[in-house]
Design brief:
Blueprint lengths: L5 H10 L1 H4 L21 E6 L41 E3 L8 E5 L4 E3 L12 E9 L8 E5 L8 E4 L7 E5 L6 E5 L5 E7 L4 E5 L2 E6 L9 E3 L10 E11 L4 H15 L5 E3 L30 E5 L10 E5 L6 E7 L1 E2 L6 E3 L2 E3 L1 E2 L3 E7 L6 E2 L4 H5 L6 E9 L10 E3 L2 E5 L3
Antiparallel strand pairs: 1-14, 2-3, 3-14, 4-13, 5-10, 5-14, 6-7, 6-13, 7-8, 8-9, 10-11, 11-12, 15-27, 16-17, 17-24, 18-23, 18-25, 19-22, 20-21, 25-26, 25-27
Length: 417
């Protein structure tokens, strides 16, 4: 098989950049890297770091009787039990050491339909950061629900049909079981479209539903519509958007949440599983990386350290690469094709627009490589920057599609100060 040089592949990569780059992503995040309250459809925002019992933070262990809507639209959660034993409490050192609301399985806080919260449209996207303190078995533990039976959407952990499984409920006769839950911090994305639903945990699809979605009539945080089946664990943040957000906007919010509550500095997107975009020659992968290379699975891009300009410790690492072959780590402004990417070589091009070549690194004997330079300096990152990263690498001898090069998944990073 004829080998092409690395320089020719890099030239092709950069030459096609303008054609493959997508338009700039919508500004779901503000210039400081946090959600923009003025973004169209941003319906409600609850964060324990600012808003429990009003502005600022209450004393540790204080009962929460008000959870302020941080969008400023007044959709505050204002109703709870008069029994302090059924009120969630504020904890300073919660998920990832950040302020959180602690529920004991019998607590709740809510807002009624019409006058305080709803109804929303049927189409909506809801994000929640949580950590369970138990594996519930057949006892459902609700993360959120509507406050009225007239229009319900819910996300819960454990059920009579799915012990210790997460489930999404669109408001009709059925709920849809998904992945096994854990006792670790989890980032939940619940997407309710007109006639379908998707639930993602830490950016990975957990469950899909096929029923019509109801409107969200009122809102209960940490319990079922009848304020039973309460959450047992922590809730740190919840964001509610009307409408189904684009893949790029979902990745941006998930990136913000990951940067805030996780040691993982980025969120993976645009994998080679063949779902959003088919791999070029049917070479789909199953390991969360890009399209399969000659080793039989995809190259995986991850981040470590902190996406912090001041700490400057972010490292990008690739695994599942082709041993001994060079690869190019690069940065871009946009998630191509709304985050789904477009076929390129043996893989999928995920990141484009304003490309910056960060570093060329050869994979070792185990098919792994890492960056060793200051990514924030090389890429010009400042607090609030949202960049997408990807690794292009050679596969000259076992190329499944004959292009002799491939790419990993994409990684979206929201930079902090």
């Amino acid at each position: 098989m004829k080998l092409r040089s690395l320089s020719s592949h890099v030239a092709a990569l950069l030459f096609l950049n303008a054609a493959l780059a997508s338009p700039a992503a919508a500004q779901v995040l503000g210039s400081d890297g946090t959600p923009d309250p003025g973004f169209p459809g941003f319906y409600a925002w609850y964060t324990a770091s600012d808003g429990c019992n009003g502005a600022g933070q209450p004393a540790d262990g204080t009962s929460i009787t008000l959870w302020t809507d941080k969008t400023g639209q007044g959709r505050d959660l204002v109703r709870t039990s008069t029994d302090v034993n059924r009120q969630a409490v504020f904890v300073t050192d919660g998920i990832a050491g950040k302020p959180s609301a602690l529920y004991d399985g019998d607590d709740y806080i809510w807002a009624e339909n019409a006058s305080e919260f709803g109804p929303t449209t049927a189409e909506k996207t809801i994000f929640v950061v949580s950590r369970s303190n138990e594996m519930p078995g057949g006892q459902s533990r609700y993360l959120f629900d509507s406050s009225s039976n007239s229009g319900r959407n819910a996300l819960f952990f454990g059920s009579s049909t799915g012990s210790d499984l997460w489930a999404i409920y669109p408001g009709g006769a059925n709920w849809f079981n998904g992945a096994m839950g854990t006792l670790d911090p989890e980032f939940h994305t619940a997407v309710f479209d007109t006639n379908s639903q998707d639930h993602y945990i830490n950016g990975v699809l957990s469950a899909s539903g096929t029923d019509p979605s109801a409107t969200l009539n009122g809102f209960v945080m940490g319990a079922r519509v009848n304020v039973a089946n309460g959450w047992n664990g922590l809730i740190a943040e919840c964001l509610v958007y009307e409408g189904v957000l684009s893949a790029a906007d979902i990745a941006s919010i998930e990136g913000y949440l990951a940067a805030t509550y996780s040691s993982n500095p980025g969120i993976s997107f645009c994998t080679g599983d063949g779902v959003a975009t088919p791999c070029p020659c049917g070479n789909n992968s199953t390991n969360g990386g890009g399209c399969a290379n000659g080793n039989g699975n995809g190259g995986v891009l991850v981040g470590s350290g902190a996406a912090s300009v001041s700490l400057d410790s972010l490292v990008l690492s690739g695994s599942g690469l082709v041993s001994g072959q060079p690869g190019l780590y690069f940065q871009a402004n946009n998630a191509i094709n709304g985050g789904a990417g477009t076929p390129f070589g043996d893989g999928i091009r995920c990141a484009g627009g304003g490309v910056i070549r960060l570093q060329v690194a050869a994979a070792g004997g185990g098919g792994e490589s890492s960056t060793s330079l200051s990514i924030s300096v090389k890429g010009g990152a400042v607090s609030g920057s949202v960049f997408r990263y990807q690794l292009w690498y050679r596969d000259p001898n076992t190329s499944p599609c004959g292009a002799n090069f491939n790419l990993t998944n994409g990684l979206e990073v929201v930079w902090q100060a």
